[in-house]
């Protein structure tokens, strides 16, 4: 997000305060767990710690579009992407969150082509071992037939868990696939997973990260 508008930081701060029902920067700084003068600095420099703000919005189920979008006029007809924070990934993977997806915070990502999309908060090192910060993996639903070499996907298996991985068919068994886990070691860990145990498959089409 680029601050072309010199007022964008101030506008986001004001919308965040309104959503949180707080009136002062001091109270907002307490909620965000930052120093009281940090918000004044953000306004002066027209910069923000987007990671802190997004994490707090996700934690409190605040619609990110209400905070970050300057113009919501045409959004009513648009498709929004639910965001699954780290603390909810286990519930999502186990299928316990399916009946309450509508309560998750959402955001509009205009470049997504697939109406079935989702964003998972993950450790960026799962995709690139050089980084160890959290990020949001923006994903579109896909199938095993549509995966090509070097695609990064998120495999959801109620039985085996949540994997950020590359996936390819097993050479010895047509009913199984091999998922590769990059653990930063010279030899990546490889796990065999049966097709029937893959409950959802999401292709990572973008990364939202804040350094």
UniProtKB/TrEMBL annotation:
GO biological-process terms attached to the record: negative regulation of DNA-templated transcription
Which GO MF terms are attached to this record?
DNA binding
Query: Any idea where the Bacteriophage CI repressor N-terminal domain is?
Result: 12-66
Coiled-coil region(s): none
Under Gene3D superfamilies, the record lists:
lambda repressor-like DNA-binding domains
> InterPro entries, from UniProt?
Lambda_DNA-bd_dom_sf, Phage_CI_N
One Pfam family name is Phage_CI_repr
The domain of life for this entry's organism is Bacteria
Q: How is this protein named in the record?
A: Bacteriophage CI repressor helix-turn-helix domain-containing protein
**Source species of the chain:** Flavobacterium terrigena
Phylogenetic classification of the source organism: Bacteria, Pseudomonadati, Bacteroidota, Flavobacteriia, Flavobacteriales
């Amino acid at each position: 997000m680029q601050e072309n508008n010199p007022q964008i930081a101030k506008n986001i701060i004001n919308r965040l305060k309104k959503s949180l029902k707080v009136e002062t920067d001091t109270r907002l700084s307490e909620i965000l767990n930052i120093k009281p003068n940090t918000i004044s600095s953000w306004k002066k420099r027209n910069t923000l710690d987007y990671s802190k703000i997004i994490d707090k919005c996700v934690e409190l189920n605040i619609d990110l579009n209400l905070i970050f979008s300057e113009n919501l006029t045409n959004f009513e007809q648009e498709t929004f992407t639910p965001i699954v924070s780290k603390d909810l990934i286990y519930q999502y993977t186990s299928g316990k969150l399916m009946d309450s997806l509508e309560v998750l915070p959402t955001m509009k990502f205009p470049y997504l082509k697939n109406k079935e999309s989702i964003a998972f908060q993950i450790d960026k090192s799962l995709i690139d071992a050089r980084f160890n910060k959290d990020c949001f993996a923006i994903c579109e639903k896909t199938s095993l037939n549509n995966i090509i070499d070097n695609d990064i996907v998120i495999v959801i298996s109620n039985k085996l868990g949540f994997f950020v991985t590359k996936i390819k068919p097993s050479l010895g068994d047509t009913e199984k696939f091999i998922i590769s886990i990059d653990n930063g070691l010279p030899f990546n860990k490889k796990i065999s997973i049966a097709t029937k145990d893959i409950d959802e498959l999401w292709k990572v089409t973008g990364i939202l990260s804040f350094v």
